[in-house]
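Support request, priority: normal
Reporter: lab tech (M.K.)
Component: structure prediction queue

Hi team, I submitted a job for Methionine synthase reductase from Mustela putorius furo yesterday, and the status page still shows it as pending. I've pasted the exact input below so you can check whether something in the sequence is tripping the parser. The sequence length should be 701 residues. Please let me know if I need to resubmit or if it's stuck on your end.
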Amino acid sequence: MRRFLLLYATQKGQAKAIAEEICEKAFAHGFSADLHCISESDKYDLKTETAPLVVVVSTTGTGDPPDTARKFVKAIQDKALPGDFLAHLHYGLLGLGDSEYTYFCNGGKIIDKRLQELGARHFYDTGHADDCVGLELVVEPWVDGLWAALTKHFTSSRGKAERIGALRVALDASQRMDPLKPELLHIESQVELLRLGDPRRRDSEARGQNAVDGGRSGAPVVESESKSSSLTRSEPPLSQAALSIPAAPPEYLHVRLQECPGQEESQASVTSVDPIFQVPISKAVQLTTNDAVKTTLLVELDISKTDFSYQPGDAFNVICPNSDSEVQNLLQRLQLTDRREHCVHLKIKEDTKKKGAALPPHLPDGRSLQFILTWCLEIRAVPKKALLRALVDHTSDGQEKRRLQELCSREGAADYNRFVRDERAGLLDLLLAFPSCRPPLRLLLEHLPKLQPRPYSCASSNLSHPGKLRFIFNIVEFLSHTTKEVLRKGVCTGWLAAVVAPVLRPDMRVSRAEGGKAPAPEISISPRTTNFFHLPSDSSAPVIMVGPGTGIAPFIGFLQHREKLQEQHPDGHFGAMWLFFGCRHKDRDYLFREELRRFHQRGVLTHLKVSFSRDAPVGEEEAPVKYVQDNIRLHSEQVARLLLHERGCIYVCGDAKNMAKDVSDTLVEIISKQAGVEKLEALKMLATLKEEKRYLQDIWS
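Reply from support: The job had stalled in the queue. We restarted it manually and it finished. Here are the results:
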């Protein structure tokens, strides 16, 4: 069996799932995959690895490799490593990303570039899969083409070994017969470094790998032409097409539900690699008016009796549950309501065909079914095609079965994107849409991902609020159109809003009534391992902050911190602080309005530039600036001077889809104009700022 090393670097489980899929398929193609998380450095050694390497790498919202790859990236970026350190290594890399973010697939690109700098060579072209349009558009053809590339590599390697052997014989003979010619001194090592195959690099972006593989990627995507098609119904040509349906994912869990004595189950039972702190809520305030488009809440946590610490700009995790009503609906649909208090015990099926099957680490043994569905599984997760394929085998109605087959087939990729991925349909939506589908509990436990904690930026400074931690959030609300129109709230923000309701007050001047008999509600939080969004160590460096909406959160912490530092060091030299803030309406959602004015009046905030996107001009006054990037453009000379000549730092926090991209484009435009350079050179200059940690982003979609 031909072996290859398969590594994955995952943040939320997607890269791991794809790597496991590759591992599953390898055996059928005559290969053996040695699968490891890239963080498990004790289980592999690239320095001595002789087999080809396949890497699947995701990317964080800030364009960095995932947390699991931090040690690996640090190790390979050691500047003391020679340029031929990995010259023996041949690899293929699949990067995952989202083009809504500025640094698309940058986690994979960082690793790819560094491997090449250390002498490693591609045996297969890099793939960049885009979650914005559907990862499978690149992932599926890339995986399909991997087997031919591996076969070619192993075939070439055998031929190369034979050639090197013949060369060694010739060299031995020449040494016996003639003095060794100088030009032959390094010929053996040069042969070792020969790059076989086409030396030109090709990049499979969202176009897929078809051009590389000569169209071998399989059946064409077929989109339903009629607008009457829906999640449950297709139209010609898809409804009449022959389908390429993936093989059913192998079962691997044996599930036993057992009556267990009543036990108290808390959030602390949730599995986590980071320490978990259960902390009381000391204050909750609504920052927006009731007629604002979005409701924004500020929550203050009392961390005085814990070891939790933070710096301004840090983010932390809130551990949240699924909606109780959705959990009850799921239990009812699975016909397990009467067993919800039963303990769940798992073991690997003895006859499983899943290679390397292991118990999901996020499912604690012996916890109740209610607890597992509430705290451990992301029941709102958009189902992957493997789950859809598994549901097919538990659907009795012929038409429903056919539709599920279409949605998980290659021909139905467009319908999958349109009705499942883009509509954010969850498992419950599918079960409602396909009534004859009766999946066993095992299937859910095998396929649903871990319920992820939600990250929030700290909106306070410990200097200003000792023993307290503040954060803000919008209560996310959206309409689900999958089966019927339903108004839903975000998993975490909807839960938080309900938790803080008893202590919620309408404005910052009123705090929770003291001395009340009811105990303060508590939530569980954990620190984030990768916090980078900090004020510059040199307090004299100018700071530009760009944070519309709730993106202002870390900058409130910055300003509170700077205010206290200036009080403690009245003779200190502190750089200018600019804030570009934006909201819809001046009188409805201007967050921290009074606090910002106070910072400005005291000289802590030297420049406050605010834009209102929905306010119309009054009378004959000039139309107001609508967006933060417009205000940045208005002050382009000052911004360019601070960044290019005064070693200033710029921080951007907020929406990745539009704002962060628009701000980045505006900065490129400003640098190009003010420095008198072409756009490409301006892009390089902006990239240099990022490398120097002077252009930092904390963004989300």
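The CA atoms of residues 546 and 580 lie 5 Å apart. The first strand starts at residue 2 and ends at 9. Let us know if anything else looks off. Ticket resolved.
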